[in-house]
Amino acid sequence: MGEQIILLLVIVLATVASAGALVPDCSDHKLQLCGDVQVPYPFSITEPCSLNSDFLLNCNTSTTPNTLMLGNLQVTNITLQGQLKIQMFVARKCYNQSGDLESQVFAELQTASYTVSSTENKFVAVGCDTYGYLNSFQDNGNSSTGCLSRCNRNTPDLETNNGDCSGIGCCQVDIPPGMNNINWFKYSYDNLKFLPDNMVPMVFDWAIGDETCEIAKQNTANYVCTGPNTKCSNSTNGSGYLCECKEGFEGNPYLPGGCQDFNECQDDTKNNCLSKENCRNIAGSYECFCLLGQYGNGTKEDGPCEQKKKKDILKWIIVGVSTGFVALFVCISWIYLVIKQRNLIKLKEKFFRQNGGIILQQQLSRQEGSSENARIFAAEELKKATQNYDESLIIGTGGFGTVYKGFLADNRVVAIKKSKIVDQSQIEQFINEVVVLSQINHRNVVKLLGCCLETEVPLLVYEFVNNGTVFDYIHNESTASDISWKTRMRIAAETAGALSYLHSAASMPIIHRDVKTANILLDQSYTAKVSDFGASRLVPIDQTELATMVQGTVGYLDPEYMLTSQLTEKSDVYSFGVVLVELLTGRKALSFDRPEAERSLAMYFISSWKEDHLFDVLESGIVNEENMDQLREVAMLAIRCLRMKGEERPSMKELAMELEGIRMTEKHPWVNFDSNQEETEHLLALASNPFKSAGTSNITAEYDSLRNHVILSVDDGR
């Protein structure tokens, strides 16, 4: 009998398929059958229904039963976990009985589509003094493996060998991971008995494409793990990736919607619950529980569920009832808040109509082309701007209301005046005043930006002037002495210009009615801005005076207005005269801390002028040899403003012009500005009695008359 040398090769290749196109519409080929072998997608025995050509197999129908073929290799099993089992030819090289050497090398493979499974295969060589080896192409390079078997002449016959393939007559070696493109198998031998097997099982690993999951996901057109409840995992043997169903789901992850939830409760091996009754299936998982009236968690680890005691049942009843009450309370609270919110909206609408919102909207709609339109603010907007009218944002208070600093959503800083009362009979006039005042555009008048009519008393919104008031500026003991006469003159001239504008240049004359240093604001450059029009009144063009209830601030009030209740532009002139005296003397308009003869600054100033003690009452820090003439001229202007009869007082326009003229002489002392020389000489002649021309011979009587008529409740206008 001739000697034989046989090399047994058991190898598995896994697919490293190029990523293919999206799943074709082959619903009838989702799971195919060839003989007794199931062919799941991405494999197919129908050409258009495989993922791509690497997964196209052939079903040989000429055999019985039909055989599934990969090339010339029979496929016996396919798993979606990335393995494919085949029957591989055994390569042999043997001497026949005639002594001739015969070779059969059927194991030659040349494909990049599969990778040899390093975990499911062994490379085996059978023979005496035999060396078997395997060459392959791996990772762009050649790779080889092999083993050597020896036979001792005294070794028992192979038929009585115990089957141990440890190098005596038989050797084996592991397949390195990632091997593919196997070229050829070869072995040599001295002697080997007959080996009957011509085919042996082999396992291939297969995967999708040659990219990792992370890279493949970026190419969404070719990525195949797109179904719900599907995940991607990188191949553990070579390149590419596999699709898997997420935990708790089963099916074909390569098909859209292929991964379906399975009921773990139907399989005792899939759950750890006490029984099917204690198991509840949920998407992708399950949960164990105890039946009603029992306690425990229903798992095998924690043992059986136990019956609850009556006390426990009562406890749960109490918990349930309490929960119900809480839910009822939450529901009632929600309904209450909804009703409250609706009532609030209705109340806002009521106030809006009551405060003339409809009239104002009509007025504004007629002026759509104007950039100076007043804006109607929402109550919530101003509430948010003032942090719900926080006391820390109050910047002024007075008889007419409280002023808050506010921050609008567009980052503008504004002053929001919250009035105390509103006269419903004067709503239409109030709306007209808002419209007119919003159109005032003068650098020395605080700009009215708009109003809010959704509150019981309307809110007014002004531009914010950030440097305090003239009152604070000249009566602050730490800074008053540092305020130069030049600055005081500029403040006086700017204030006079603003009042002159209101009286004569506005679309409808406006009488401020509460002119005082506390209502003259200063911006960052100490520019004067007349503010607080809460007591102001519009004067129809065909009227020169109005009959109104006396309002204003004691110390600044026009005596004639107090006596007659007839409001004219000259009432503002009188108040401005008091402002001039404050700037000259640095004293407050009214102070009960001073002797009785000095309490009213206006009366005291007139008395000092009459007695030629002018420079005794002026602020000491402003007097010097260079400005004495100017001080005397401004003092004469103040005296003219304080005349008892309004008709004898100058107009604000005259005052503005004369103050600017005095300032000009300060800037240009060589200019001989004497626009009213006759008036000046007349006033100098009246130094002994400045009220002679007014028909007044008793200054004390006039002062007493003033005191006796202060019977109305007046405010400070802040």
What would your notes on this structure say?
- Helix 3 runs parallel beside helix 5, helix 7 packs antiparallel against helix 9 and helix 9 packs antiparallel against helix 12.
- Strand 34 and strand 35 form a beta hairpin.
- This protein has 15 helices and 38 strands.
- The protein has 718 residues and is an alpha+beta fold.
- Among the domains are: 212 residues, no CATH class; 107 residues, Phosphorylase Kinase, domain 1, CATH 3.30.200.20; 160 residues, Transferase(Phosphotransferase) domain 1 (Transferase(Phosphotransferase), domain 1).
Brief description of this entry?
This protein is an alpha+beta fold.
Features:
single chain, 718 residues, alpha+beta, Phosphorylase Kinase, domain 1, Transferase(Phosphotransferase), domain 1, six-stranded mixed sheet, elongated, disordered N terminus, Wall-associated receptor kinase-like protein, EGF-like domain
Q: Helix fraction?
A: 25-40%
Average pLDDT score: 79
Q: Unreliable stretches, pLDDT < 50, 5 or more residues?
A: 1-23, 184-191, 670-677, 679-718
Number of helices: 15
Tell me the overall shape: elongated
Percent of residues in beta strands? Answer: 15-25%
Described by strand count, sense and barrel closure, the largest sheet is: 7 strands, mixed
Describe the secondary structure blueprint for this structure:
Blueprint: E1 4-6, E2 9-10, E3 13-17, E4 31-34, E5 37-40, E6 58-60, E7 67-70, E8 73-79, E9 83-89, E10 92-95, E11 101-104, E12 115-116, E13 122-126, E14 130-138, E15 141-149, E16 170-174, E17 180-188, E18 199-208, H1 213-218, E19 230-234, E20 241-245, E21 249-251, E22 259-261, E23 279-282, E24 285-288, E25 294-295, E26 306-307, H2 310-354, H3 357-365, E27 375-376, H4 379-385, E28 394-398, E29 401-407, E30 413-419, H5 427-438, E31 448-452, E32 459-463, H6 470-475, H7 485-505, E33 510-511, E34 520-522, E35 528-530, E36 537-538, E37 545-547, H8 559-564, E38 566-568, H9 569-585, H10 601-610, H11 614-617, H12 628-641, H13 652-667, H14 677-685, H15 699-708
Helix pairs in contact: 3-5, 7-9, 7-13, 9-12, 12-13
